[in-house]
Design goal:
Elements lengths: L3 E8 L8 E14 L3 E13 L2 E6 L24 E2 L6 E2 L6 E3 L9 E7 L2 E7 L9
Antiparallel strand pairs: 1-9, 2-3, 3-4, 4-8, 5-6, 6-7, 8-9
């Protein structure tokens, strides 16, 4: 079972229905994927839909770049999906599935969230300590 680190994100009231935001994660963590290789994640994308909160690593499944262009904009112009502003990939909020774009059918890397006493917390993987050379 993986260990998790809690990253406080603030009051859930700041994330009203239909909102999508980028949240920094410091220090970052590493994801290893068969297709993308090893990628350092430094932020998450969070969306609220149907009264539920969804969170994913801010990494496009086409090329390991953030969905935003550094400006925090992660929503499509119509506000219905997460959008990779580099490649045009469109990801469904509820499950992170790519609905259109060069990574059609792939899913964003899901992150767990906790909502407790009106506060939103991300649960991100704890990185193992570096191993000394043998």
């Amino acid at each position: 079972m993986a260990d998790f680190r809690r990253v406080p994100c603030g009051p859930i009231a700041f994330l009203p229905e239909g909102t999508m935001v980028r949240v920094p994660i410091m220090p970052g963590f590493v994801i290893t994927d068969d297709r993308l290789g090893t990628v350092r994640v430094r932020s998450a994308v969070i969306g609220r839909k149907g009264g539920r909160t969804y969170a994913y690593a801010n990494i496009c499944r086409h090329v390991p770049l953030t969905l935003d262009l550094g400006d925090g904009e992660v929503a499509s112009a119509d506000g219905l999906v997460f959008l990779c502003h580099h490649h045009g990939a469109r990801y469904r909020i509820e499950d992170g599935k790519c609905l259109y774009g060069p990574c059609d059918g792939e899913h964003l890397f899901k992150l767990e969230v906790e909502e407790l006493d009106g506060e939103l917390t991300l649960l991100v993987p704890t990185q193992p300590p570096p191993q000394p050379p043998t």
